[in-house]
Every structure is written in structure tokens, then in C-alpha cells.
Amino acid sequence: MGISAKSKGRTNLHLLYYLVKVIKSRCRFCNFSHATRFLFSLSLPSMKHSDETIKELLDKNFPMLDEPVKEIISEEASLQTVSKGKLMTRTGNNLRNIVLIADGHMKVYREGEDGDIFLYYLQGGSACAMSLICASKQETSEVMITALENSKVILLPLSAMEKLMKTHKNWYQFVIETYRSRFEELLSAFDSVVFKKLDERVLEYLNSHADRSGTRVLNITHQQIADDLHSTREVISRLLKTMEQKNMLSISRNTITLKSGAAIV
Predict the structure, then answer these.
(1) Do 131 and 98 form a contact (C-beta atoms < 8 A)?
(2) Rounded CA gap, 51 and 57, in Å?
(3) Does residue 89 contact residue 133 with C-beta atoms inside 8 Å?
(4) 3-state secondary structure (DSSP) of residue 81
């Protein structure tokens, strides 16, 4: 009868501990910590270093970056998980890292006297422009970043970014494109507020969420829509009810289902 993989694993660990014990007893003047790490690296090949995880996420969501750039980020950066609903950073925090969204969905906004001011969303494959600015100028954060779902972020130290800016044109182009896309989003939001009616803005907002999430069933509250569009919950609720009566969408508790072909007439 063959030996199971589980039994082999226990046998390998017992052998490992025995070897470590022998090294410790017989090599009084050798670098024991180095030897131990070496033995563990040989015995546990299935345990991946976090750098490998970062590289996998970069390959998956940042195809625009060259391999040398991704290698440097993998070596220098750290990976952080942010649970849904948690604040990643708040106004006044020191920002010493550039924030790359490896996976998930996050919201960037500012605190105002009359409530939060929505700026833009971040999803896998994007970078936070405000973190690029604040970290490079060593300033405190002027924005709040909240995870809308369980997310993974890559935190790149300023020193690594400065090295990349000097030596890799590909990274420089990525930073410029990040600034451009965020600026266009802010212009679009401004145009929407100034030139479009609220019902058009709501429908555009819902369609944008549907495109990002890949589903027309949206887990979103009336209050969240109101906050993002700088309106009130009562106004948004009345407007959504009117849109439901026109068969543009259907409403249930904390869920809005957007109908195909919905349009403002």
C-alpha cells in the first residue's frame, strides 16, 4: 500500500526538524538562522512568497506594464487586503506609498461641510492619482478611500516609484495615463452636474455601475446614489420610483435591477 501525501508531509517535517537539531548541536559557530531558512525553503516548495502573489496580480490586471517594471514592483511593494466597507485611508493620513488596485472595487471621495464629495472609482488595474501626488510631494491625504468589496491593493514605496520614473519610460507613461483618465472622469462629473438633468445622471450612474460589475442587478442603496450624485435620499427615491413606473428598472431592498434598453425619453 502506498504512502499518502499527508504521511509524506509529516515524514518530511520530522526529518527537517531532526536536521535542524543536528546543525544546531554540531555547528556552534555557523549561521544557524541562514541554514534553517535554507532547509525550510527546500522542504516547503508549495508555500509562495508574497512577491509571487504580487507578480501574479500584476500579470492579471496590469498588462500595460512591461516585465522589468512588474519585476521591480514585485520586489519593492507589499500587498494589503482591505475588507468591504473598510477605510483604506482617510483625510490627514500620511501617504508614503503609491496605491495600485490589484483586485476589487474602491471609492475615492472628499469630506465636505455639506457631506462627502464623490471623486471617482478605482478597480483592478488602476492606480490612485491622489496617492501618486501626495506620496511624491510627501503630503498628507486629502481624500478618503473606502473598499466597496473585498479588495487587494499593492503599496509601492516612494523610493521605488522615483527609481521607476527615472529608468522606465513605460512606468512614466502609466503615471501620465493615470492622471489623464482621472482628470477626464472629473471633467465628466462636472459636465454631468452642470448640463444634465438628475434623471439622466441617475441612469448614467446605474449604467456605469452595471458595466463595472458585469451585472444589471445592482446591490446599491438610495443613500449611496444620493451621496455620489450630491443629492438627497428622498429626491433619489422619488426619481427611482418614477423610473420603475416607466419600466426602466425594478426596485427591491438594497437592490436595483436595471432593465435592458432603459433610456430617458
Answers:
(1) yes
(2) 10
(3) no
(4) strand
Kindly report, residue by residue over 169-220, the tens digit of the pLDDT: 999 999 999 999 988 888 877 777 777 888 888 998 898 888 877 889 998 8
Residue 106 in contact with residue 151, Cβ under 8 Å? yes
Q: And the C-alpha cell for 130?
A: 491622489
Grid coordinates of 193: 452636474
| All cell numbers assigned to 183 | 482628470
Residue-wise pLDDT tens digits, 45-82: 333 334 458 999 999 999 999 999 999 999 999 999 99
Residue 159 — φ and ψ, nearest 5°?
Answer: -60, -40
Angle at alpha carbon of residue 209, lines to 153 and 260, rounded to 5°: 150
Element of type H or E holding 118: strand 115-123
What the block records as the C-alpha cell of 242 is: 418614477
Residue 81 and residue 142 in contact, taking contact as beta carbons nearer than 8 Å: no
Name residue 81's beta-bridge partners.
Answer: 152
- β-bridge mates for residue 112, sequence order: 115
Residue 85 backbone class (left: φ over 0; alpha: ψ -120 to 50; beta: rest)? left
Q: Tell me the C-alpha distance between 181 and 63, whole Å.
A: 17
Q: Which run of H or of E encompasses 147?
A: strand 144-147
- 145: DSSP letter: E
Cα–Cα separations (whole angstroms), residue 117 to 90, 107, 142, 210, 221: 13, 11, 12, 22, 17
Classify residue 10 by burial, with Cβ atoms within 10 Å: 0-12, 13-18, 19+.
Answer: exposed
